[in-house]
TrEMBL record:
MF terms in GO: ATP binding; glutamate-cysteine ligase activity
Name of the encoding gene: ybdK
Similarity annotation: Belongs to the glutamate--cysteine ligase type 2 family. YbdK subfamily.
Gene3D superfamilies documented for this protein: 3.30.590.20
Described purpose of this protein according to its UniProt entry: ATP-dependent carboxylate-amine ligase which exhibits weak glutamate--cysteine ligase activity.
EC numbers on record: 6.3.2.2
Any one biological process term the GO annotation gives: modified amino acid biosynthetic process
Known catalytic reactions: L-cysteine + L-glutamate + ATP = gamma-L-glutamyl-L-cysteine + ADP + phosphate + H(+)
A Pfam family hit: GCS2
Region: Disordered, residue numbers: 1-21
Keywords, sorted A to Z: ATP-binding, Ligase, Nucleotide-binding
Domain of life: Bacteria
Name of the molecule in the record: Putative glutamate--cysteine ligase 2
Amino acid sequence: MPRIAIRHGRLGDPGPGDPPAAAGLTLGVEEEFLLLDPATGATLPRAAGILAADPPLPPGARLHRELRATQVEAATGVCTGARQLREQLVRSRKALTDTARLHGAVVASCGTPVLSGPSTSDNQDGRFGDIDRIYRGMVADYEACGCHVHVGVPDPETAVAVMNHLRPWLPTLLALSVNSPFDHGRDTGYGSWRMVQQSRFPGAGIPPYFPDLAAYRAEVRRLVDCGALVDESMSFWLVRPSTAFPTLEFRVADAASTVDEAVLQAVLSRALVRRALAADTAPPEMSEQVGAAALWAAARDGIDGEGVHPLQARRVPAWELVKELAGFVAPALDETGDRDLVAIVLERLRHEGSGARRQRKAVAGGLPALLATLTNQG
């Protein structure tokens, strides 16, 4: 793929005084959160009141409804660097936390709840209502939360070309993010039960190879015509061109336990896009089944134990895949000044473990320890 000039992407309104994106592509993050009862740790349907309260967010940031009334999404504005993104995430988490407290709830950043309360929904009409009607029992108690990263790209055609290069790296991004080991009070044995839940949907997982934008749109249209998708703005692939913004949207990561882990996903995603934009070779060929096996292994064990190398079709230590990813994107991280940041967060993950491991440790310490782990604002 030939090198392409970088332009700005938009996730929301940029804040005043945003520096020019001289170093590279713009960034934005959408964080999905659970609302919990501080007395029990179970999910609590308080989204409507919190959204109506309109918390004071950073410039360009927005809150949105989610599928269930126990969830809320916070989207940053357009950011040009990791420091700016981190500041927005910290401020948004604090504003949301403070407002939720006034409504008797705490805000948890995890991929699935440890304990679920009664499943309720305010979404009887509109698009969310259509989702309930089409997917039925699959979404009746679907409280899965992700950390979605938007990276600015020049145009949708380029987004599809870049997406083809990213496919082998998606399992490793998931492995770094696993933060959903529990389901209705039981330990599933997986790092990301959210990914297992998501795999039930039609067309979920690593996207197929698409020769161009027309082929991508035709496949989405076919899935809509088959009744498997609500509309053409929906797909369950883990990376896709955004239909709302001029960005490529990564949907692979569990909700991040800490702000630094959300920033890690963002800068790694941007670095992968930069490497793809600069590539002068065809995307690597990958077996669809091996790719699915790699994603499953990442969901099961995260950065612990064995993973599957998507291109070599063999089992390898999961941390070897992380080191391979870090080495691959190192030139792009140097260009944006993010290499040291990535090294620090990766070293912390290596020593302290994934969000899933930390959740398991916290559960053993009782409800106070669990809530402290799930409600990290920093």
